[in-house]
Amino acid sequence: MRKFAGFEVCSIYDHSLFTKLGVHFFLWGGAIQFFGTKHHHDKWLRDTENYSIKGCFAMTELGHGSNVRGLETVTTYDSNTGEFVINTPCESAQKYWIGGAANHATHTVVFSQLRINGTNQGVHAFIVQIRDADGNICPNIRIVDCGHKIGLNGVDNGRIWFDNVRVPRENLLNSVADVSPDGKYLSSIENPDQRFAAFMAPLTVGRVNIAISSVYQSKVALATSIRYALTRRAFSLKQNEPEVLLLDYPSHQRRLFPLIAKTYAMSFAANYLKMLYVKRTPQSNKIIHIVSSSFKATFTWNNMQILQECREACGGQGLKTENRVGQLKGEYDVQSTFEGDNLILMQQVSKALFAEYMAAQKRNKVFKGLGLEHMNKPCPVIPLQLTSTTLRCSQFQMDALCLRERDLLNRFVADVSKCKAKGESNEQAFMMCYELAQDLGKAFSDRAIFQTFVDAETTLPAGSLKDVLGTLRSLYALICIEDVSFLQYGYLSVDNGANVRREITKLCTELRPHALALVSSFGIPDAFLGPIAFNWIEANAWSSV
């Protein structure tokens, strides 16, 4: 938890610093720790901790990003010398976007197909030195910078080619599989799919880190734009009257307060995700993979939406780098695709839910885990007429979110099963049902995040704090229920949809007196916010030029 906290603070300060540290400690160091065994730990971990070697993580290639199984880098074994030979066989196999590779890294973990005696044993990881102690690139290795990016330019992303680079047999990270000195492939996991899953499981921490850090950027943007809206005025309602504060306009409240509610929800969910990871067991790896995939996609998408809205809410000042909001957009855009493309992650979530459904049916047992226990209960019913009291009731809110998830899971299973009955393969069937898969992934995520909000609220004693948090919880629930899927799939009538929108406006009005307290509670240090969060007239005065 201390490590998470340290990285979170770094991410608030500078995304490039966060990424450089993350690549070295979590990716390079994590690969040694989790993919390696004792002799790797003894040889590499202390130097990693001391930063006397600088590591990077060579997984993605020009031709392959999310599809790790399709990597084209090839490694063979030479039993005469006891060495692995790593080669980039074509241009699309060049390692690409490797953080730290262009300037600083001395070593890397290379992910490559392993071919033993003509048989491809799948993707494995190898330690390779790419620079000497003086920073010179090692023989048979070529490295070039990826070039200027829309953000994250403090990270030296590089491209790497390997021209039959030889490394000792001991440089294979062998926690899952090994190669004997005479060239025999050894693994306690015979099934290639299970072997690949075991191999990839430790990488979950990357998604956890990214999900968590994205929440903090939303907090920075909202803390800035709310403070600005509490001091910036525009237009008078009557002649000779003072101009109106931006945050006193209902339209400005409607654009920012739902985002505050969303950020509180993400914050509670991020804490839940951290604890899930910290308390992990081999049995919980699948749950962590599903939840981290769902939250990483949802949080990073939400973050980009929040940064854009806050940028616009700050007007021209949102464009200034020193005010941070606009700059954060470019810096954090990458999070939507690194450590897993968000659309693909959401499809993985839906596939996992499909598997849970089929397993429950096959065993004729109840649903257990992933919050799917609601599937064992009678289907919730939404009242024909939604009153303000009903809309603010946490039980109604949970019922509505569970109803959507339940119905979409049933629809998804039915549609995939229909495709398979027509002779389509599993993968083809899932591909043809991609729209339902996306909607189901979102429904799962919204319900899971909402549950963490409710859990946080129940820990508070009755009083004003719990009242305000309850208002925020209702606002978060209703912006989820306002989603087009509730009308599209018939969970809400058009009239009830209009009632939801009206209630959201009321909730925003009620939160107006608490605006500053809500963003101050994020605890972002003043030094990490831009000048428009404070006395922006003084910051722009001639005397400051």
UniProtKB/TrEMBL annotation:
Q: Which GO terms describe its molecular function?
A: acyl-CoA oxidase activity; FAD binding; fatty acid binding
Q: Where is the Acyl-CoA oxidase C-alpha1 domain?
A: 203-353
- Protein's GO biological process: fatty acid beta-oxidation using acyl-CoA oxidase; lipid homeostasis
User: Where found?
Assistant: Peroxisome
- Keywords noted in UniProt: FAD, Fatty acid metabolism, Flavoprotein, Lipid metabolism, Oxidoreductase, Peroxisome
The protein's matches in Gene3D superfamilies, at most eight in alphabetical order, are given as:
Butyryl-CoA Dehydrogenase, subunit A, domain 2, Butyryl-CoA Dehydrogenase, subunit A, domain 3
Protein family: Belongs to the acyl-CoA oxidase family.
From the Swiss-Prot or TrEMBL record, give the protein name.
acyl-CoA oxidase
Q: Which organism is it from?
A: Gossypium aridum
